[in-house]
């Protein structure tokens, strides 16, 4: 009888313990960011899950942390990258406000995910075209993001179709 009680009592604990490993079962993909570009949100080497997005199926949302593939940003390598969506189609983004913050659609942007004392690199105004996104790392001093690709054909923007996943962060 005690074996049955122990077995029945153990089942909920085993099922609960599978939650962390169940992401692959539920279709999520696991990624690791080797860089410091998304700190403090994602530490260098930290793994995280991302909900896959069908090609062209991403519905842009400001604040999302996305996994995307933009080979031109990496010298032709087709490697997944991780950045935050800061501006979506129709937005106008620039830097900096009088207090040194990113300006989105004429207002200084509140970014609680940035580390205290974060300094922005000034950049001129960019209007985000239809079907494209403005992406930035949370560690602004160490992120080669949209600001560093202003000379590219898309003025630093990335096609929304390049997004392959949306990070699921705890």
TrEMBL record:
Gene3D superfamilies: Umud Fragment, subunit A. The keyword Hydrolase applies. Residues 21-168 form the Peptidase S26 domain. Residues 1-23 form the signal peptide. Its EC number is 3.4.21.89. It comes from the Bacteria. SUPFAM superfamilies: LexA/Signal peptidase. InterPro entries: LexA/Signal_pep-like_sf, Pept_S26A_signal_pept_1, Peptidase_S26. It catalyses: Cleavage of hydrophobic, N-terminal signal or leader sequences from secreted and periplasmic proteins. It is found in: Cell membrane; Membrane. GO terms for molecular function: signal peptidase activity. It is a single-pass type II membrane protein. The keyword DNA repair does not apply. Its main location: membrane. Keywords: Hydrolase, Protease, Signal. PANTHER family: CHLOROPLAST PROCESSING PEPTIDASE, SIGNAL PEPTIDASE I. Belongs to the peptidase S26 family. NCBIfam families: sigpep_I_bact. This is Signal peptidase I. It comes from Actinomadura nitritigenes.
């Amino acid at each position: 009888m005690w074996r049955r009680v122990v077995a029945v009592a153990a089942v909920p604990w085993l099922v609960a313990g599978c939650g962390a490993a169940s992401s692959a079962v539920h279709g999520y993909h696991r990624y690791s960011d080797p860089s410091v570009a998304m700190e403090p949100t994602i530490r260098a080497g930290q793994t995280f899950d991302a909900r896959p997005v069908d090609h062209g199926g991403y519905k842009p949302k400001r604040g999302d942390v996305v996994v995307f593939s933009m080979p031109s940003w990496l010298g032709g390598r087709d490697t997944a990258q991780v950045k935050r969506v800061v501006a979506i189609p129709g937005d106008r983004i620039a830097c900096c406000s009088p207090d040194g913050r990113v300006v989105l659609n004429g207002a200084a942007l509140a970014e609680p995910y940035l580390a205290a004392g974060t300094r922005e690199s000034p950049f001129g105004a960019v209007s985000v075209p239809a079907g494209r996104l403005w992406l930035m790392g949370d560690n602004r001093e160490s992120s080669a993001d949209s600001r560093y690709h202003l000379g590219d054909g898309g003025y630093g923007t990335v096609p929304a179709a390049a997004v392959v996943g949306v990070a699921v962060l705890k």
